Amino acid sequence: MKVTLSALDTSDTRFKPLVILELAQNVKEETRKWLEKKINDEKKNGGAQLLIRPLVEKCEEETLESQNLYLIGASNIRLLLGAESVGLVKECNDSTMRVFNYETRQNFKGFSDDNDDFLTMAECQFIIKHELENLRARDEKMIPGYPQAKLYPGKSILRRLLTSGLVTQVFPLHDKEALKKLEIIWYHRFKLKYQPLDTIRTYFGETIALYFAFLEYFTFALIPMAVIGLPYYMFDWEDYDKYVIFASFNLIWSTVILEVWKRGCALMTYRWGTLLMKRQFEEPRPGFHGVLGINPITGREEPLYSSFKRQLRIYLVSLPFVCLCLYFSLYVMMIYFDLETWAQEVHQESQFPELTNLLLYVPSIIYAIVIEIMNRLYRFAAEFLTSWENHRLESAYQNHLVLKVLVFNFLNCFASLFYIAFVLKDMKLLRQSLATLLITSQILNQIVETFLPYWLQKKYDLRVKKRMQALKADVDVTLYEQIILEKEKGTYLGTFDDYLELFLQFGYVSLFSCVYPLAAAFAVLNNFSEINSDALKMCKIFKRPFAEPSASIGVWQLAFETMSVISVVTNCALIGMSPQLNAVFPDSKTDLILIVVAVEHALLALKFVLAFVIPDKPREIQMKLAKLEFESLEALKQQHIKLVAESLKEEGREEEKKTL
Amino acid sequence: MKVTLSALDTSDTRFKPLVILELAQNVKEETRKWLEKKINDEKKNGGAQLLIRPLVEKCEEETLESQNLYLIGASNIRLLLGAESVGLVKECNDSTMRVFNYETRQNFKGFSDDNDDFLTMAECQFIIKHELENLRARDEKMIPGYPQAKLYPGKSILRRLLTSGLVTQVFPLHDKEALKKLEIIWYHRFKLKYQPLDTIRTYFGETIALYFAFLEYFTFALIPMAVIGLPYYMFDWEDYDKYVIFASFNLIWSTVILEVWKRGCALMTYRWGTLLMKRQFEEPRPGFHGVLGINPITGREEPLYSSFKRQLRIYLVSLPFVCLCLYFSLYVMMIYFDLETWAQEVHQESQFPELTNLLLYVPSIIYAIVIEIMNRLYRFAAEFLTSWENHRLESAYQNHLVLKVLVFNFLNCFASLFYIAFVLKDMKLLRQSLATLLITSQILNQIVETFLPYWLQKKYDLRVKKRMQALKADVDVTLYEQIILEKEKGTYLGTFDDYLELFLQFGYVSLFSCVYPLAAAFAVLNNFSEINSDALKMCKIFKRPFAEPSASIGVWQLAFETMSVISVVTNCALIGMSPQLNAVFPDSKTDLILIVVAVEHALLALKFVLAFVIPDKPREIQMKLAKLEFESLEALKQQHIKLVAESLKEEGREEEKKTL
Fold first, then answer.
1. Cβ–Cβ gap B81/A647 under 8 Å
2. Calpha distance B454→A342 (Å, rounded)
3. Coil, strand, or helix at residue B50?
4. Dihedral, CA atoms, B619, B620, B621, B625, nearest 10 degrees?
5. Which end of chain B offers a freer environment for a tag, N or C, measured as fewer CB atoms within 10 Å?
6. What percent of chain A has pLDDT over 70?
7. A311 Cβ contact list (under 8 Å, min separation 6)
8. What is the arithmetic mean of pLDDT over A517-526?
9. Nearest CA-CA partner of A279 in A550, A554, A555, A557
10. A142-143 and A146-150 beta bridge pairing
């Protein structure tokens, strides 16, 4: 397969395609030429100074489908300069981590001028994405050929192209060899072992690697709980003193593991360099729209949207809608309880109790499926609403979305359990519901998330491959085939859903842990297979996602901590309600409640003290950060001493002149 | 009064004494000369490049007492360079706040090369202190003349001189005129008005101004509580629904005021420039000692002390000692209750109930005095122990000291109240004890802290002045007299005790607010006079303290927030115990407790949500900070674009060479 060299000024051998850009069908020739020039042009002329070439030559256009695909790459030096501009942190020869600096590049470990492997492919792709997104309009008032696609100075051209539909997608290319190696060590050989987190990070970037690290960590952290919980099931322990021990262990444990995770995470992200990475200035998110005005912070002309209008939308539309959804969710819950009662009645009146025994589980299973469906539907609504609220920054959008989704999912998943526990006070039903909900949702999730898409994907892949083979056998179509296959794959929408799943699982395990200790065991089993199915999903089903640097799991840390606080309250309440414990205090129920409340307060206080006392970063990392800080302050001081000497010398000279 | 010009290379007119350094009696001449040279020497030779001169000439030595006093000043340009080195933040002409930079000095508001008022006197003194403390040894192995006062490269010379007793004190000079003006607007004319916080800040620095700002804010914040509390006392309201309303208001109020304070504080410290000031690298604290070794962070030779030994000291000595003190405090409390019972008995058996009625208050008053004495004794012990723990950093020392003192003072002050409330369940006694403790401790504090020292000070001042007049009437002794007077004054040991007093007051007001709503009114009254007596203390009794920049009230914010959380628990418990509320639920005490616990949890949750929702910085400040961040990132980016252009051009040239 030949590729045209038009508009490229470097030799062919140096070009390595990293990112694919797909234009819409029938984009005007004028626009194509303009975009190619923009991407290729020098930085001082307002270009991105990257390399771009169409996937297929003009002459071949008719025979093959995708004349709208462009390959984007960059010269080695351009990538290194880009690494500096995004503030990438790399290891130095003295094994400290430092922000990459092109001028001092020789100090960095593994760097030599003729070495292309210094930056990983994922990093290169991240840099190219960053440069493309920062390709900004100067004097252009519109995208040439499309007067409706308006531009203003400083507007990101790629974002305008995407929102006006002229560019359909931009995605990074898989590295087939590296991917194959990764698959083999990651999940092909099924056995109990740690995941190759560093390799995952090299290939997919820090955000995804952190998710898998957290999933693995969380799974291992659940093992002690699962092991301690098993005998309760096996020996049918019903003594409440044993349950109290289990619950207390559980509550302290969950605090400890969340704190220890923070430390482990800091250790890992220090090694990966993201702990030291400075936050970039946040640009408005792609979907943000408004009337052109002067941004008071940047002094630039950009769309502005009044904060008051946004508040109105949030409080007059979004909030009532969320409340309505919550009400609806409770309504569905009541229907479930009606169904449950009906099933009980049928079972009791039935002449074949063995047959109708199964029927008892049916309402829970149906309810679990309904919950899953409602969660997914609500997710779309929440995304739509949050997008309509028109937040300026991606982070604000994410926070509002997470809040909406978490509140609803929490209520939707756990309301029925709270109702059974604290209104019906039926511990047997609680245990049964909890088990059905947990297991059903886990099975559903794995099917919907991974196996269904995988199966569909496989069918499509086969079709494309057959057509390829039929088309031409004389040309090397490897790259072409790879791109055609990848461009049709789904886009991985980020780790949100995966974390949410874990969050709900954590809720099932910890909220009612003293009633159903077996939950942890099920969660562990699920997570071992989840690691594999998520790995499969990342490698096979979706397009390669752009690597995103991140230093922690962000808002999820807070969400998990909140859940662990709530679980202290629920567990204490459950233990207080237990008939066994009530039998110990036959005369004074009041004393019992007071004791339970006191224990609860003590546990909560202990949790806060633990969270406060355990440092968020291990000593080793603290030392390394302090050392870096010291060095930069020292450098400043040296610079300053020079300045003082010079200035005072000058002053002296002036004095002399005056006295003369 | 003439002053010697030895070792000074600038003309006399430019010298303005800012800081006084007092040597010990009989310091060797060799050492004096060396120190003078060090302070005066150029920075590149390892000096501080400041101006120093003895207060009195050699010839007059015999007649006057203080030949050991030195005046320290600096040239204007030296101070400006020092301001840059400490990272002072000043207002620019475009009314933004920026870190002062000597090169761009013309951009700053109120700056001109012949204007000496750009830096306030307090700032100049802070800069001189910083430069003196950063005067470090180079090759010297010891202080000349004193082989036992060892030095090593990088050791702060002033700190070694202080620890070896060669320098007895270093303190800034008062500005008599400015002080007089400040006194007049601050407290001379007694009327209800805001304090001149900006003037206080200019004169005493941010840490002290922030304390007075917080004291004033806290007092005003208490007024609504005091106003709402008054009718309870006047009309003898005993309905518990009213108490519930008061307590609920109280709890929400305390959260709101603490959050709002954070915002006000950010607003104020932004204006003062300290919000933007970067934290300096922390040097070991003066008292820290250990074996010389290489510090892994700085790579410098300095004393090291094993963290393990410190932990041993903390857990094997300090912790048991604190526990012992706590036990002793509880023991004293039990004695107080015995006394209380005895007084009750005497009163009941007495034939003169009018006379013995007063006796009922005596045990509380004695106990309050004993508490105060124990607090003060414990404070010494805590300081000694924390110092013996040998913390490397001042911040670690402070944290350990604050923790020790807070725990003990909390228990010492409130244990008896908790005992009365929750064990004796005697609300009348609780109210009486609370009132006695609060009022006695407030009166005691004001006397011990201010009026006693003021009286002693005044007597001493008169004596000195008389002697001065007798000594010489022919010379202008203003400066001399001022220095002699000031050097004998006490040293202000920081805002710790003042905050602690407020903290305990906050506890008295909020912990049992639903039992004794009048507490807030007493606190308000006390604080109005506290403002004046503290102001008097700062202006008259103590030496002028060095200004310390700070951006918030630090650990005290956390302490107050913790107290407000604890007060939710205590108030809910008190309301739950009230007989009136119990009468509403005559049949089921269980329901009552459950409701109270539910309300308590809801209040706690509300507090956390409020703290989370109210942003710590006002929008205005957030915008300004974002703008600064944007500008610095933009500057970096521009620099980077230039670099890219140059580097790629070079690459192009090399390519050309290759192809040629």
1. yes
2. 84
3. coil
4. 90
5. C
6. 92
7. none
8. 89
9. A550
10. antiparallel
- Distance from the Cα of B613 to chain A's closest Cα (Å) equals 12
Query: How far is A289 from A365, CA to CA, in rounded Å?
Result: 44
**Nearest residue, CB atoms, B589 vs list A296, A590, A634:** A590
CB-based contacts of A466, cutoff 8 Å, min separation 6: none
Whether residue B294 lies within 8 A of chain A, CB to CB, comes out as no
Q: Is B447 on the interface with A (CB under 8 A)?
A: no
pLDDT tens, residue by residue, B216-268: 999 999 999 888 888 877 777 666 667 777 778 888 888 899 999 999 999 99
DSSP, collapsed to helix, strand or coil, labels residue A92 as: strand
Type of residue numbered B64? L
Tell me the pLDDT tens digit for each residue of B107-120: 888 888 777 788 98
Which helix (H) or strand (E) covers residue B149, if one does? strand B146-150
Rounded distance between C-alpha atoms, residue B477 and residue A181, angstroms: 87
Report the alpha-carbon distance of residue A491 to residue A486 in Å, rounded: 10
Q: What are phi and psi of B306, to 5 degrees?
A: -65, 135
Residue B267 one-letter amino acid: L
**Distances B538 to B203, B207, B552 between C-alpha atoms, Å:** 11, 13, 20
Q: Are B446 and B533 in contact (CB under 8 A)?
A: yes
DSSP string, B417-441: HHIIIIII--HHHHHHHHHHHHHHH
Which structure tokens are listed for A175? 């590295």
Q: Is B297 on the interface with A (CB under 8 A)?
A: yes
d(CA A344, CA B89): 74
Render B151-172 in DSSP notation, one character per residue. --TT-BHHHHHHHTTSEEEEEE
What confidence tens digit (pLDDT) does each residue in A326-385 have? 999 999 999 999 998 888 888 888 887 777 777 888 888 899 899 989 998 999 999 999
Q: Using an 8 Å Cβ cutoff, are B651 and A75 in contact? A: yes
Above 90 in pLDDT, residue B15? no
Better-scored residue on pLDDT, A659 or B327: B327
Q: Do B297 and A640 touch (CB under 8 A)?
A: no
Radius of gyration of chain A (CA): 30
pLDDT digits (tens, 9 = 90+) for B451-505: 888 888 888 878 877 777 766 544 556 777 788 888 888 888 889 989 999 999 9
**DSSP-derived secondary structure letter, A173:** P
Buried/exposed A475-498: b ≥16 CB within 10 Å, e otherwise = eebeebbebbbbbebeebeebbbb
Q: Residue A19 and residue A69: Cα distance in Å, rounded?
A: 10
Instruction: Please determine, for residue A278, whether its predicted confidence score (pLDDT) is greater than 60.
Output: yes
pLDDT of residue A298: 78
- In order of A159, A305, B4, B213, B257, the CA distances from A148 in angstroms are 14, 20, 81, 56, 51
What is the ipTM for the molecules in this complex? 0.82
Report whether B346 contacts B356 (CB < 8 A).
yes
More confident residue, B199 or A117: B199
Probe site for chain B from A14, A84, A281 (most B CB atoms < 10 A):
A281
* Test the A interface: residue of B577, B585, B648, B654 with most A CBs within 10 Å: B648
> What would the pLDDT profile of B432-454 be if each residue is shown by its tens digit?
889 888 988 888 888 888 788 88
Tokens linked to A17: 């395609």
Question: Which one, of B225, B233, B411, lies nearest residue B329 by Cα?
Answer: B411
CB atoms within 10 A of CB B291: 8
pTM of the model: 0.86
DSSP assignments along B77-108, one per residue: HHHHHHHHHHT-EEEBTTS-EEE--STTGGGB
Beta-bridged to residue A542, according to DSSP, are A490
| Interchain proximity A648–B42, CB inside 8 Å | yes
Is residue B10's pLDDT more than 50? no
Whether B613 contacts chain A with CB within 8 A: no
